[in-house]
Amino acid sequence: MKMFSILLAWAEDDDEQGTFGWSGLAADLDDAEMKARAASAESNNGFEEKPAACVECGCTDNDGTDICPDCGGNIENPDCSEFEASGPVLDSMEGCNMWVAPDLLAALINAESFISGFEGDELQEGIDEMLTAIRAAIAKAQGGAQ
Fold first, then answer.
1. Closest CA to 97 of 17, 20, 14
2. What phi and psi, each to the nearest 5 degrees, are found at residue 107?
3. What is the 3-state secondary structure (H, E, C) of the chain?
4. What is the pLDDT of residue 146?
5. Separation between Cα atoms, residue 10 and residue 68, nearest integer Å
6. Phi and psi at residue 58, in whole multiples of 5°?
7. What is the pLDDT of residue 50?
8. What pLDDT digit, counting tens, does each position of 115-133 carry?
9. In DSSP terms, which residues pair with 8 in a beta bridge?
């Protein structure tokens, strides 16, 4: 499993709906997209509350049990998959989600640029190790080698 970041549009051709971002472990980009869409449905479930309803008659007047008091059918919670982000993938990458914190990447790049001015200076201890760590973090954030 590797770390992936996915940015989804909530809806096709509807910028007002906004975006949904997800980062996590997945087998590949397809798996990451599937997990991102599932996470979007889960996160949106609280905004689109639907009461539990009978699968037979559709009534929502239940007494908190799994059996409908009107017809005896099963009471089930609504499927929230209809509330998942259905728009296109706007961005996807292996690695850290820099679209969530672009200022962090910019700060790392600026720090690397400044500190590299001391590279090779024998009076500056630990510069080579510091630059190695910063460069690795930049590469990881950009989806490169870790």
1. 20
2. -65, -40
3. CEEEEEEEECCCCCHHHCEEEEEEEECCHHHHHHHHHHHHHHHHCCCCCCCCEECCCCCCCCCCCCECCCCCCEEECCCHHHHCCCCCEEEEEECCCCCCCHHHHHHHHHHHHHHHHHCCCCCCCCHHHHHHHHHHHHHHHCCCCC
4. 47
5. 34
6. 80, 0
7. 62
8. 999 998 889 999 999 999 9
9. 20, 89
Distance of CA 36 to the CA centre of its chain: 6
**Tokens standing for 40?**
């979007």
32, with CB counted inside 10 A (0-12, 13-18, 19+), is: buried
Q: Is the pTM of this model over 0.85?
A: no
Distances (CA, A) of 83 to 39, 48, 101: 10, 8, 26
pLDDT digits (tens, 9 = 90+) for 54-77: 777 777 766 666 777 777 777 666
